[in-house]
């Protein structure tokens, strides 16, 4: 029983780490692309503003998809738990 609980806790830590990376990476990638555009193509620094906005949009989209997958897993787990229980009308 203890090992199963520890496994669940480690799984939750992994999910938090994945969510953190999912939020951070699109923003960093867009800002890196803006930096490269400024350095190589000599465009103005105004490029950082749309890059930041696009990075935030990508981060929110990714976070929403991770949220939906977590909710889907919880519903699946809840269904499996409820189907194994015997209720008053389902004991035959």
TrEMBL record:
Alphabetical UniProt keywords: Membrane, Transmembrane, Transmembrane helix
Pfam families documented for this protein: ATPase_gene1
Highest taxon in the source lineage: Bacteria
InterPro entries named in the record: ATPase_put
Bilayer-crossing regions: 21-42, 48-68
Protein name: ATPase F0F1 subunit
